[in-house]
Write a structure and sequence with these properties.
alpha/beta, Rossmann fold, 7-stranded parallel sheet, 8 helices, 7 strands, globular, binds nicotinamide-adenine-dinucleotide
């Protein structure tokens, strides 16, 4: 039987890699995002390569919209096995130039970052868990944390706290859902190179190559492979954990890094 995954932020950089990787593994994917145009592109790409996908447009900070999107997924594919909440980001979510230390940070930035990263994880996990419990066949819930949630970062207190919240949610929810054979885990990327980074500039090169111990760019696929593993049957005994995928970056962080 074909497994079904519900992916938030499925049209972003890591979300696209995740959707494509899961589809390649034979999983039907509901690619969700707030950005309709980008959703259509990812869905077309998956279908052109023989995968099964639908596109859903919703705001993950609105629980009614998230519930409806999960219902749509079940309507389209008949079931739900995997939920991956990738949607998220730092102060950038509230617009450019919004990074600030807490003493200077605005309410709207704190609200936005907590809502997308943390409230989104609550809403998507809850909607998916309700369906999985009713199905009675277990399931996989995977939320996105960050190494910033593990170590903190100057100018990103709201982001660090939102991702720390995701890690705590992961542990508590794993306890609640264990009896239903639903595993709950988180993936914590380090610095992931983005397509818009110009690696020919010294800053771009530093961003892409010098942010971990391996001296290579961490890509969206590198993160997606961890999601693929956690979503698979092979990971059936792993729950309540956060997995760092950062090329060893956290080992080398010091000071205000
Ligand atoms: N890129 C990195 O270096 C890095 C590092 C650590 C953690 N992460 C985490 O990985 C995840 C994905 O990051 P990314 O680099 O792919 O970011 P991205 O900006 O490329 O993708 C995020 C996606 O979320 C969507 N989104 C934003 N607000 C939304 C909302 N309210 N409702 C629905 N969708 C919404 C955006 O449209 C976008 O497509 C995030 O949770 C991020 O915090 C990224």
């Amino acid at each position: 039987m074909k497994k079904v995954a519900f992916i938030t932020g499925g049209a972003g950089y890591i979300g696209t890699a995740t959707a494509i990787t899961l589809a390649r593994a034979g999983i039907a994917v509901a690619v969700g995002d707030i950005n309709r145009e980008a959703v259509d592109k990812v869905v077309n790409q998956i279908r052109e390569n023989g995968g099964e996908a639908i596109g859903l447009v919703y705001d993950v900070t609105n629980s009614a919209e998230v519930n409806e999107a999960v219902d749509e997924t079940v309507k389209a594919f008949g079931r739900l096995d995997i939920m991956v909440h990738v949607a998220g980001g730092s102060a950038r979510l509230a617009g450019p130039g919004k990074y600030a230390q807490l003493v200077d940070q605005e309410d709207e930035v704190i609200d936005k970052v907590l809502k997308v990263n943390l409230y989104g994880a609550f809403y998507a996990s809850r909607a998916a868990a309700r369906v999985m419990i009713k199905q009675g066949e277990g399931g996989r819930i995977i939320n996105f944390a960050s190494t910033v949630g593990v170590n903190g970062l100057v100018g990103s207190t709201e982001y660090a706290a939102s991702k720390g919240g995701v890690m705590s949610l992961t542990k508590a929810l794993a306890k609640e859902l264990g009896p239903h054979k639903i595993t709950v885990n988180a993936v914590a990327p380090g610095v992931v190179c983005r397509p818009e980074v110009d690696v020919s500039t010294p800053e771009g090169h530093k961003y892409a190559y010098e942010t971990n111990l391996l001296g290579e760019m961490c890509t969206g696929e590198d993160i997606a492979y961890m999601v693929e593993y956690l979503a698979s049957d092979k990971a059936r005994m792993i729950t309540g954990q956060t997995y760092i995928v950062d090329g060893g970056r956290t080992l080398s962080m010091k000071g205000t890094d």
